[in-house]
Design brief:
alpha+beta; 11-stranded mixed beta sheet; 6 helices; 45% strand; elongated
């Protein structure tokens, strides 16, 4: 071979290109040297998103736990101006918060239901804004529309017949705590309230018999005692009761313009009874003059309108008393026969 012979140009170019082509590692280093700032921004942004999301979730959980741990006690509840499908509600409640945070809660719309039937609210009320300090009070004063009559009948029946009843308040509100972002929390409280306990202790404390009925037909006038161990004040209108002796109907009693208040209630009662039947039972069976009477609610009428939610509750409750009819008959005076 001629040592002075030149190498073909194409071969030289191929060898040169192979030597000049950068490796993958070199390309990657070059890429990072060029775009390092973009990756840094992406890393910082991703870290911030993760940290802020975690902080947001943590804040939301802390806020929700604080709401869950707070207490709510109804101190007074007045139900007035009842209509067949609405009532006026005035309520004072005490909010207790033992958390180190004292947030502010916005006003919100809340459902009211009976414990165990949270999916059937009987009404909705506007809960006012409150600063949840260690103790805070809230006041509600508004007209309330009944949204589920069966649920409201159940509430009133439990309230009348049971020693206690669970009231469930549910809604969503916004929570403000200092400079932290505003958080939406669920408000779900079950409040145990004292009920009327079947009107236990109900009694006719005095009565007199009129042989000649008065203009409204009443021929027995008396006074009843009704204890109310709850914090409820309830306007029920004209309430009538059916009276029975051994399941035999003997007449009706009426409490006019009944407003049942907390504590002891002493109220006038007017009754229209079948005196002939009563005297027969006293002379034939209850010769000592002590007549056992069962009293069952019948109707509740306010402004000429029947209130089904009270009537159904009253009809589910039965009271048993003993009347000293013998003493009332002995006390008849000549004036009482006129």
């Amino acid at each position: 071979m001629d040592e002075g012979k030149a190498v073909p140009q194409t071969h030289v170019d191929e060898v040169g290109n192979e030597r000049a082509r950068p490796s993958s590692g070199t390309k990657l280093k070059t890429h990072f040297r060029k775009w390092w700032w973009l990756y840094l921004i992406f890393f910082i942004a991703s870290t911030l998103i993760i940290v802020l999301s975690y902080m947001s979730l943590s804040q939301r959980k802390i806020s929700q736990d604080g709401v869950n741990d707070s207490g709510l006690e109804i101190q007074s509840l007045t139900l007035s101006n009842p209509t067949p499908d609405s009532f006026h509600l005035e309520q004072d409640a005490l909010l207790t918060n033992h958390n180190k945070y004292h947030p502010r809660l916005d006003a919100f719309n809340a459902s009211l239901s009976v414990g165990g039937s949270e999916d059937m609210p009987y009404a909705y009320v506007e809960i006012p804004a409150v600063h949840a300090t260690e103790t805070a009070t809230t006041h509600i004063d508004q007209e309330v529309q009944i949204t589920n009559m069966d649920a409201f009948i159940d509430y009133n029946t439990q309230l009348l017949t049971q020693e206690s009843v669970d009231l469930v308040v549910k809604g969503k509100t916004r929570l403000h705590e200092g400079r932290l972002p505003v958080t939406t929390v669920d408000y779900n409280k079950k409040i145990r309230m004292k009920g009327l306990n079947g009107l236990a202790g109900f009694d006719v404390t005095s009565f007199s018999i009129k042989l000649l009925p008065e203009p409204d037909g009443a021929n027995m006038i008396g006074t009843v005692y009704i204890p109310n161990p709850s914090v409820l004040t309830i306007t029920m209108g004209n309430v009538t009761f059916n009276n029975y002796v051994e399941n035999e109907f003997i007449g009706t009693s009426t409490l006019s313009d009944l407003v049942l208040k907390p504590g002891n209630n002493t109220l006038p009662m007017r009754s229209t009874v079948n005196q002939t039947l009563v005297i027969q039972k006293v002379t034939a069976t209850y010769v000592d003059g002590m007549l056992p009477v069962d009293i069952v609610g019948n109707s509740s009428v306010y402004n000429g309108q029947h209130l089904e939610y009270f009537e159904r509750a009253l009809q589910s409750n039965r009271q048993h008393i003993v009347l000293n009819v013998g003493a009332a008959l002995a006390a008849l005076s000549p004036e009482g026969t006129q």
